[in-house]
Amino acid sequence: MNFQQSLRMAGKAARGNLRPGILLWALLLLFLLAYLGSAGFRGLLQQVANFKSGAGYPFSFTIYVIFGALLPELLRIIFFQRCRCTAENLRNFLFGIFIWGLCGILSDFFYRSQALWFGPGNDWRTLMTKVTVDQLIYSPLVNSAIFSLFTWRAAAFRCSVWREIGSAKFFLGRIFPLLVACWCIWIPGVMLVYFMPVSLQLPVASLILCFYVLVFTFLHKQE
Asked: N or C, which end of the chain has less CB nearby within 10 Å?
């Protein structure tokens, strides 16, 4: 597979994700309007921020497990499996605890680091700098790692599959289209994350992850 073919696949993935992306953006806009216009809503979020500051990284681990691992399986069971839980759901959840819990800790650490590197402000220059570093460095590395681990699991944890995962064909055919689709959907969400105070960035990112899961579960019916 060459780069031109990979671009075509990326464009197809982006077009396929357009409807759920628009719905996600609408939800984010409502969230932003509520934050800017409602003192009560800001107060509620501040309580979450205070709890997060006291709990530290265990909060980061737990909230990402809830929205990244538990919620998808519950939605699959309720809406696509007629409320019948299977052993596969349990295996998915247990594997998701490791993946999404670690992702929550890494994301929290990264958001704190961005605040140290570029300051805690949300002016336009600071915002765009953080979004650029996030989307061009951090997110490609994390998304590639997550996708590779799920590919390894799908191959029954055979070590030989890492030769395929590390190949240029795998990157062009699987990873790059995924990254383009994620960029098209997540850039507005990441801008909202960095608009918030540092203590609220991970909770807001968790809500975006929740919206993302809900949108793709209902519109794409992913198994």
From this structure: C
Q: List the chain pLDDT tens, one digit each, 223 residues.
A: 666 776 677 677 666 666 666 777 788 888 889 989 999 999 998 898 889 888 889 999 999 999 888 987 887 788 778 888 899 889 989 998 999 999 999 999 999 999 999 999 989 999 999 999 999 999 899 988 988 998 898 898 999 999 999 998 888 888 888 787 777 777 888 998 999 988 889 888 887 777 666 655 554 444 4
Structural domain that includes position 140 = 3-220
Query: H helices within the chain, ranges in order?
Result: 3-16, 18-37, 39-55, 57-65, 71-75, 87-118, 124-133, 139-154, 161-165, 168-170, 176-195, 198-220
